[in-house]
Amino acid sequence: MAKIxxxxxxxxxxxxxxxxxxxxxxxxxxFETAILELTPDSAIDLTDFDQIVVGASIRYGKHxxxxxxxxxxxxxxxxxxxxxxxxxxAVARKPEKKEPHTNPYVKKxxxxxxxxxxxxxxxxxxxxxxxxRFWDRTMIRFIMWMTKGPTNLDANxxxxxxxxxxxxxxxxxxxxxxxx
Length: 180
Ligand SMILES: Cc1cc2nc3c(=O)[nH]c(=O)nc-3n(C[C@H](O)[C@H](O)[C@H](O)COP(=O)(O)O)c2cc1C
Description:
By secondary structure, this protein is α/β, with parallel strands linked by helices. It has helices spanning about 15-30, 65-75, 75-80, 105-110, 135-145, 160-180; strands spanning about 5-10, 30-35, 50-55, 85-90, 120-125, 125-130, 155-160.
């Protein structure tokens, strides 16, 4: 049975939640899965996997540096499998900013790496002020105010379109079926 590895980079756990939903979808599609966290110290061996998905959230305009490092360190394996990538960010709550060529972070990110994933997903994230420390709360609230998002400190808003996440999962199953 083909095995799909989900490698994720998160701060508050929303990217992990998306991986968990994807895991359910691809397991229903008949595949084995593993979810592994990417941290500055993680040593992830990709040889075990028939297909790889890298998922990462945006903070202050960027994915964390270990995401680019991981991609560069594993470029041969990623390129040979083609692979999938998804980004989670608040800007993607706007329909006109959720395509690889319209989401500013993904657009820029794809220019910094040579990998061209076969599937790219861009999902709206979650804004949950109660989870953030003072400085982060102040900063993201300011960003939300600038971009007409929620600014009420009680807000806990999930901007992820879970139907799109599931469609990404199904596209992944098709990719694995095609490539194996
Ligand atoms: C401190 C902070 C900074 C953020 N910066 C950005 C940003 O620059 N652009 C953006 O679109 N979303 C930004 N976000 C929104 C996150 O991408 C969103 O909350 C996402 O769900 C986080 O995923 P995670 O829990 O997997 O880390 C920020 C969130 C926080 C708390």
